[in-house]
């Protein structure tokens, strides 16, 4: 019988460490050993069958065990959580949830518990979205500008080479030749010249 630990992770390394720590603690209490960790870096909105979790569950055999850090690491909707549990029940797999300190065996009681936990996760995410929206609205009402400031940037990347650019352009060099000399893309230099209103020389080679 094999024991697997599934980690659905983001780019936050601290999140991964927290999941592993919780799973190790649970495994020690529950007597689970020789855990095989499976890391899955995905978007939370990606359906579970499209993730490593889908192929992992399909490849597991009767009596194998899979440990999740928490219900919300299985999926982000109650429907998907129930689909996962249904597959595990069909394959007679053992499902452990570390944070909630429970084992789900496919029984009606387990499904009810998983549903409630999944709903709680959805409600919490909705609260987070609502708080974020309210905070942004409050900042806007207070006069704070949201998003990227409008208007031209105060400092541009090529400002440091402006003297060189003006010199080469004044000599009659075109955009392409000047771009090579200042190590910039012709399109970038052309945009810079327009934004800064620089004067071209007598010869223009685009």
From TrEMBL:
Say yes or no: keyword DNA-binding present. Answer: yes
Q: Which UniProt keywords apply?
A: DNA integration, DNA recombination, DNA-binding
Q: Which GO terms describe its biological process?
A: DNA integration
Gene3D superfamilies referenced in this protein's UniProt entry, alphabetically: Resolvase, N-terminal catalytic domain
Q: Which SMART domains match?
A: Resolvase
Q: Which residues form the Resolvase/invertase-type recombinase catalytic domain?
A: 2-143
Q: Which GO terms describe its molecular function?
A: DNA binding; DNA strand exchange activity
- Return the Pfam families for the record: Resolvase
Q: Does the keyword DNA-binding apply?
A: yes
* PROSITE patterns, alphabetized: RECOMBINASES_2, RECOMBINASES_3
Q: Where is the active site?
A: 10 (o-(5'-phospho-dna)-serine intermediate)
Cite the PANTHER family for this sequence: DNA-INVERTASE FROM LAMBDOID PROPHAGE, SITE-SPECIFIC RECOMBINASE RESOLVASE FAMILY
What name has this protein been given in UniProt?
Resolvase
Which organism's genome codes for this protein? Photobacterium gaetbulicola
